[in-house]
Amino acid sequence: MHIDIDKDVCIGAGQCALTAPDVFTQDDDGYSTLLPGRADGGDSPLLREAARACPVSAITVSHTVG
């Protein structure tokens, strides 16, 4: 999986971190960021739900080909 957070769109609502705290956190400014080592989302069952929970659709999750 590939996770992309559009920092220009993110408003820091924190819904991703609340939904999938094993993948997302918020930086010092309150914006969404990935936890270290979680760039691929791992096997979090809530990853796609966290992307859907974003009120401004700043998070996209896609399958990596390889």
Automatic annotation (TrEMBL):
<keyword id="KW-0813">Transport</keyword>
<keyword id="KW-0411">Iron-sulfur</keyword>
<protein>
    <recommendedName>
        <fullName>Ferredoxin</fullName>
    </recommendedName>
</protein>
<keyword id="KW-0479">Metal-binding</keyword>
<dbReference type="InterPro" id="IPR051269">
    <property type="entry name" value="Fe-S_cluster_ET"/>
</dbReference>
<comment type="function">
    <text>Ferredoxins are iron-sulfur proteins that transfer electrons in a wide variety of metabolic reactions.</text>
</comment>
<keyword id="KW-0408">Iron</keyword>
<feature type="domain" description="4Fe-4S ferredoxin-type">
    <location>
        <begin position="1"/>
        <end position="29"/>
    </location>
</feature>
<dbReference type="InterPro" id="IPR001080">
    <property type="entry name" value="3Fe4S_ferredoxin"/>
</dbReference>
<dbReference type="Pfam" id="PF13459">
    <property type="entry name" value="Fer4_15"/>
</dbReference>
<dbReference type="InterPro" id="IPR017896">
    <property type="entry name" value="4Fe4S_Fe-S-bd"/>
</dbReference>
<keyword id="KW-0249">Electron transport</keyword>
<keyword id="KW-0003">3Fe-4S</keyword>
